[in-house]
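Human: Here is a favour to ask of a fellow structure person. Comparing notes only helps if you start from a blank page. I am asking you to supply a protein in sequence and structure-token form. Write it directly below this note and I will take it from there.

Assistant:
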Amino acid sequence: MLLDIAPLRHNLAFRRLFASQFISGLGTMVSYVAVPWQLYELTHSNAQVGLLGLVQLVPVVLCGLLGGAVADRVDRKRLLLASEGVMALCLAGLLANAMSAAASVWAIYLLVAVLQAASGFHRPALEALTQKLARPEEFAAVAALSSVRGTVGMVAGPALAGVLLATWGAVGAYLFDFFTFVAALFFIYRIPREALGATETPAERPHLLADLAEGLRFAWKRPELMGTYLVDIVAMAFAFPVALFPAMAAADGRTESVGWLLSAMSVGALVIGVFSGWTGRVSRHGRAVVIAAAVWALGIVALGFAPSLLLGLACLAVAGAADMVSGVFRGTIWNQTIPNEMRGRLAGIEMISYLTGPLIGNARAGFMADAWGLSTSIWLGGAICLVGVIATGFALPRFWAYRGSVAPAPSEMA
């Protein structure tokens, strides 16, 4: 039942990559709380906070696709270093803006858009490099470890952000995130070159757009991949409540509550991640993704009717646990069905699927909350999400019936 940490024990290169993203992920989650909090403090508008999602949407789509194609053509370690460097510079800009006498809302939008564009190159390089460093029989364990890595950051990061925001404001949060990027760059730089193997890229490559089109065709022809993308987009577009957390914290009367709300989802996810050893024994991956997404929707519906902050935190923990299960099986499907020479391009498409949903969801939640109130925005979005997820399972029967390989038993490995 326990999390399989064998890839960390036996693989130095993967361990350093894991450490780099563990550190920078913690800082990223601090800023993930700080940016909407700062916007709400400056504007006192849920719609303005929701607009942040739309500002990030274009860079996600354009740079996710472009970054995926680039990741399959260049040195992925160097691409990872370059993108993390740009992201560190964006944090320096957010820090400078927060320290100014009159912080600019438009500067926040601009810097966050550039940060998201850099992430479009960072994520495909990271996913392709991760797959390259892991053995096929470790894919389920690597997916669980990656999810736990992100989840720990999502638990500790928002809680830390609440303390930093209450004590030093956005300045403290951005300064912390900047230094985590510096530490991450150090660990990535120290990944041994020999662990990456020989470059498989041929001397002559098709045009970049032809590479991109090939990746899109590959995904389109495989229902098991399209199902993972569509379920996640539907789940997040209609039931992602994060844009409303600053307003919920303001209603609670405590700045720290914004961190507690975001951490609650991650606490549920972390519990699942720690006890994720069972995921390697599950073969019906498509069914697991759909069922987990439906439980996520039910958790958000319950959140909309929660009479107190404590019960709301419990609902978010259930939703986060379900999202973790979905993420583990989606990651396993991706690694089992995608060849490494196309991993960057497909990682770009994956990034679009799991980032556009939350960005659209934040915008939907913010505008709907200003029009109909917080509670209605939350529970109605969750109800629509539930219907959409079930409909996706019916619409893609091959995805619902998809079976993946399972990890060998310890005796078999021996």
